[in-house]
Amino acid sequence: MAATRTSTRLATTDPMVPRPFRLLSKRHDTHDTVTLELEPTDGVPLAFKAGQFTMLHAFGIGEVPISISGSPVAEGPLVHTIRNVGGVTRTLVEAEPGVEFGVRGPFGTSWDVSDGKGGDVVIITGGIGLAPLRPAILEVLAERDQYDRVTLLYGARTPDDILFGDELRRWADLNGIAVEVTVDSAAPGWKGRVGFVTQLISRVSFDPAHTLALVCGPEVMMRACVTELRQRGVPAGAMRLSMERSMKCGIGLCGHCQLRELFICVDGPVLTYERLAPLMQKWEL
Amino acid sequence: MDTIKEIKDYLPEHPFFKGLDPDLIAFLAGCAHNVHFKDGEILFKEGGNADTFYVVRKGRVAIQVHHPAGGGSILDTVDAGGVVGWTWLIPPYKWIFDATASEDTSAVAFDGACLRKKCEDDPAVGYALMKRVTVVMYERLEAARLRLLDLYGAGA
After folding, report:
1. Is A60 touching B (CB cutoff 8 A)?
2. Pairing with A213, which of A47, A188, A227, B48 sits 20 to 30 Å away (CA)?
3. Structural class in CATH, domain A19-107
């Protein structure tokens, strides 16, 4: 079973107490985004499922929810891809190897991408939304022959903002994934696509009745994608979206991430469109 | 050299024409010929006469705008299965952007004046064509509005 990284311990006994992790390495992905590799100081790796997040704690600064971007099916460090949007994220992005952070979690629901075995998988994402989907992609790649057509549609702001560029090419070249990338704008000389990610959906082949769609990005983008997917005939229950709200406690107590009857930190972040449909177009939510 | 018959055979497979009455497609194909552009070749320039409607068969076309400060921006790209240019429909029939082939590109080029005449002569033809052009316009407008939000920007 390759769905979850094995571990002798799932989490600390108290989910509110951060476990210390040391920053092993930092890779600059774009001008404002880095990928951090963290190792637990107690040597016990963090088990997680694709789609889950941790509360990442910069001691003395604060704590933020960050999706895990590493592989859930391979041993290795805890991987987070973080965009500098100020505050705690600036501290995390600017940290150098050796610094210790606190980690709570993992929290939340997963993509459960294995439900798509035997059918097509369509992954649609924009901006930093590719990071929470990377574990699901790696999970699919680990058992690529179990899936039929696998498609990744990715929208970025500009060519310089494209995340995991080398991996995108490798996934397409070696792993039989149809990877389509578009950017919102580009300077003359750019040979790729310019347009919004929704415009890619009509260009790719999949069997709507046997497709699992995973969507992650800004909520307006996800709504537009869902509209396109529904027009193609993908059932609401087969569309999974990762919702972003202001997660604080991570265990459904504080209510910061409440979306009407849902606590996104425990009921989400990954939810079916079937469940989200009544909530996504309400201004008050 | 491709012939009119070959264009007629191809057009029903193109998404823009898919499902359209074959007789109507054949009628419209009388305005068309095949064109090829090398990577980097210019299809049209801002301010020029908008006299052509391109149905892209292969390759990619970049719709660009030139601005003195930054040199220019690509506003949109159109791949195989898409269409380029609707200004041939709208007076004063002048291109408002530049278009350049981003790679070797093949297209069916319709003469704009010829298409307009067919639409004027037969409103049913005009309506059928307008419905399809409107869908393209709608899709591009919707995508452009979403991109205006700069959803992937740090402030989004």
Report:
1. no
2. A47
3. mainly beta
